[in-house]
Amino acid sequence: MKANNAKETSMIKRSFPLAVISVAACAALVMGLTACGNNKNDQPTILTEAPESTDENNIITEKAKSSVPEISEDSVLSDDQNAPVADSSSDTANSSDNSSDSSETADSQPEKVEMSVEKMLSMDGAQLRALSNDEYEIIDGASAQSASFGLKCAAFPEYVFVLKRVEYSENKPENTIKVPIDDYVFELGDEIEQLNLYEGANVGSGVTVGMTYNEIEKKLGHDIEVSMVNTTLGMAAWTEIDGRYWALHFDMTDEQAGEIWKRLDASTKDGHTTLDDPGHVDLSDMDPVCDLAVFDISIDNWYYGRTVD
Question: For 226-264, how does the pLDDT look when each residue is reduced to its tens digit (9 = 90+)?
Fold first, then answer.
């Protein structure tokens, strides 16, 4: 069975309607030679909450909040100067409201949390979300053969954890994270099945995402080789790091990817990559940058021969 090439492997992309917030601001202007009475236009506050997925990473925003402070008093006309003059009491009130809103926004932002692979694997999804005050985004899992979703928490965005889908589970938990896409609603439990580490995250043994191919080999003290991967990753270098089996993905141009696929095919027995013969090539001459590290718990168990009920 021939495996799909990188250009044939597509990421799972979903889109959601973009919630657009528009506020019409009104001000009263009175012109004349004599003083006129005050006019009042109450500006309503609009709150909305909706997912958005306009960037190329197809991020599903879990919580989007926007508020507009009320306009409490309009400008009044001065008899002496015959020109509009802002009501100082209104300015003070608005300034106070804005300061309060800014303070509340700052207080709601979760503090950065120091994260590690060991810490993530010692907790479940609910515990990790709590560390980020439930501030997170839902994104596509980085390595999958079907729809999968990871949570990117605001307190530690470099460390994404992919949760197990439970919509068909007989023991589905009472509370699930719902991900509506088109006419279907995916549901996620709290069991972690995969870690996706991005730039700046510590993989282990001194290796961090963002290092080059040669830097990683130097840190590990041994060579690594890239092979075909039958998931949305396309290709990656499988290697052991701190007793865990990781897939390291590297950033490359389309031209570089094309050259690597030629090398992978040439390294196989029959001249093309398959599931049984995925090919293996060294990329030290290209020295690309690692942009993603994937730890899949089920693959790790398979690699080390663990039996899981």
Answer: 999 999 999 999 999 999 999 999 999 999 999 999 999
Among 182, 261, 198, residue whose Cα is nearest residue 15? 182
Question: Is-above-0.90 flag for pTM?
Answer: no
Q: Give the Cα separation of 189 and 157 in Å (integer).
A: 20
| Distance (Å, whole) CA 61 – CA 152 | 10
* Closest CA relative to residue 7, chosen from 268, 236, 258: 258
